[in-house]
Write a structure and sequence with these properties.
globular; about 290 residues; EC 3.1.2.-; Thiol Ester Dehydrase, Chain A; 6 helices; about 35% strand; hydrolase; 12-stranded antiparallel sheet; alpha+beta; 2 domains; single chain; Acyl-CoA thioester hydrolase
């Protein structure tokens, strides 16, 4: 069984291309997850909605979503462990011909947590029973980062990174004063934009293509808290392909890694709405960064 949620699309969710911004999709599936648990697990609502941490989010952006009244989201469970569970999401529409049009897919690994005692806990039998109703074992169409890629992310030299400071806003945090998991995507997005401005400052406007996010993975290590002092987001180029490239990032606080991320970006032709190889001047900057 899958839970179906109708998510309202807002004008403020759009980016400069008129597409729903990549961060907004994570907001959508978070709303779908909460609606599923509130609807089907009211007795466990507080424990599974407010008393849980997102450990990892993996997302694939399949097609641009334009402004419309609402979009459909299906939510289901792909794995249940003793102290965590994995949810899968698909954001879609059905066109006039009755065909399913998919815009976004994602998975999230969630772990129940005792915030008062600052420790994880095991799922209760009642929680397992509810989650099992939505269990569809199998791998969803979400590519995960490999162990080799994780090692490369850990071993990057600090001098190869582009630092950007982020200050936590009051609206970024939940009832436990932790930054919400979706807001991490926003921090990484702002850091990427800051990096682009530095890297491509000397590239002519005509040589600057449109760019969209194709995939994004975030691994959460430590809670980010509300405080006056900023956190540092470091970003660097980790791969360059024909029409795509990867930007790896981490959020650090006094040497401690709070979260890590990888974004796969694709240079984009707005006329054809398809991936396109970037101008050589743009690509040369990326290759120079990759080679250090």
């Amino acid at each position: 069984m899958r839970h179906l949620y109708a998510c309202q699309v807002r004008w403020a969710d759009l980016d400069v291309l008129g597409h729903v911004n990549n961060v907004s999709f994570l907001d959508y599936v978070q709303e779908a997850r909460i609606d599923m648990l509130r609807t089907h697990a009211p007795e466990q609502r507080d424990a599974l909605v407010e008393g849980a941490l997102i450990v990892r989010n993996d997302a694939t952006f399949v097609a641009p979503l334009l402004l419309k009244e609402s979009v459909a989201i299906e939510v289901w469970v792909t794995e249940i462990k003793a102290a965590s569970f994995t949810l899968a999401y698909e954001v879609f529409d059905v066109d006039a011909a009755g065909e399913r049009v998919v815009y976004f897919r994602a998975t999230s690994v969630t772990a129940p947590f005792l915030f008062g005692e600052a420790r994880p806990r095991r799922l209760t039998p009642a929680e397992v029973e509810v989650l099992t109703r939505f269990l569809e074992p199998g791998e969803p169409e979400i590519p995960s980062r490999s162990a080799q890629q994780d090692r490369a992310l850990r071993s990057v030299a600090p001098e190869r990174t582009h630092p950007w400071e982020t200050r936590v806003r009051f609206t970024d945090v939940d009832a436990y004063q932790h930054v919400n998991n979706v807001t991490y995507f926003e921090y990484f997005q702002e850091a990427r934009i800051s990096t682009f401005r530095r890297l491509f400052d000397d590239v002519a406007t005509d040589d600057f293509p449109s760019v969209v996010v194709a995939q994004m993975s975030v691994v959460y290590r430590r809670p980010i808290l509300l405080r006056p002092a900023p956190y540092v987001v470091r970003s660097w180029v980790s791969r360059v392909g024909g029409s795509s490239y990867d930007i790896d990032s981490d959020i650090v606080d006094d040497g401690t890694v709070m979260a890590r991320a990888r974004a796969t970006l694709v240079t984009f032709d707005t006329a054809t709405q398809r991936a396109a190889r970037p101008p050589q001047a743009y690509r040369d900057v990326l290759l120079a960064e990759l080679q250090g």
